[in-house]
Amino acid sequence: MSARFVFPPLSDVGFVDDPPVVAFCNGLLTDALKRGYGHLHVRAPRAGSESFDVRAQKDGEWSQYMELPSAMHNTVLRRFKVMAGIDLVRSTSGLGTITVGRADNGPLALHVTIQLSDGAEEVLIDLPVLTGPP
Fold it and tell me: What are the Cα distances from residue 50, in Å, to 69, 71, 119?
């Protein structure tokens, strides 16, 4: 399953805490939890590619979740680092946790790993299996 999204040019977005990237990353996590995915993988764009993939795993099977413009990769990567409390400057690999509050069932801990692939950073997010709404 693949979806393309059109966002404002990065020069218009500015900072990692601006609403478009915040809303996008929050929505991505919420949707992945609702769909019952176990992992999300924000892959690095390949050299010369105009896009990068976000892959999802469910029941042990990986599939393409969406494809986004390469120009968004660093912005999305930085936002997930901020959410997980991972150092933006020094970290080319690292671990962190995103805590998501829920009204009924208490907070969820989403474990985030930053890893290198061919010299570029990628994000792997472990998602818990939900028994109720996210």
Answer: 6, 8, 18
